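User: Continuing from earlier, I have the next pair ready.

Assistant: Great, send them over.

User: Here they are, in order.

Assistant: Folding the first of the pair now:
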Amino acid sequence: MTNRKQKSPQQEANRLSIMLRHVPGEDRFPVDVEALAREVSRNNADPIGKIVGGELPGLEGMLRPHRKRPEWHIVYNDAPRYRGRVRFTIAHEFGHYQLQRPVLSDRNYKNGTL
């Protein structure tokens, strides 16, 4: 995995806010965080390929790399403790993707798996 300069959370939040202002109408709220994560990440060499619920005892969610190609998955606990938790968790993991992930490339998979 390759490293890159870490982004500022404030700069990234401002960038996404500007992008959301271009969405026509008031239907943009509440923000569809899953669609936002997919749309923003599709322009990267290592996009978010899957956002799925699963059984995660003791965890609310995770960002994990795909084992066979440069792609990321967001997995969230599909038994949330309260309403809104799934959206929060997807947004939180998307934040990790945007701000902290090591960028994946084909070089990371030269032997067929990460």
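And the other member of the pair:
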Amino acid sequence: MAGKSKRAAKVDEHGVLLVAPPKTISNKEHLQRLNYLFHLSTFHTIVNDQDENNALARMYAKNLDLIQKKTKSSLAPGLKRTLCKACQRTLIPNRTVRLGVLNDSKQKTPVNRVLVLECTCGKTKRFPIGKNPSYQAHGEKASNLFFFQK
């Protein structure tokens, strides 16, 4: 161990870890395909006013889910929150999902507020927002972003 020297990690003035860009990205084609299917699903949900069932958009979202499972690729939390698990719709406010803030507690304190997303299929998602209004998922925090140096 005495002969081996470790390189010190490079950190900028803001405390952000600087890392070299990866030489290769595993499953790059799968990630590009998943991204494309998500964008297609969102586009067809927004554009098609005649199709109330969003059949084409739901098919793209279902393919996205199947490919994600077969390739064992993980989706970002923000992307997962925009898809309904029951009917495979892309959740777009005032088009496929209704938003509301509920407070079912007896005291009606702001700590107990819950954001409720109700899809047109009837499935609801509930996210607690009262305890920490500035909460962000681990992958969305700015402190966890890596800046690549050239």
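Worth noting for the second one:
The chain has one domain: 26-133. The longest strand covers residues 97-102.
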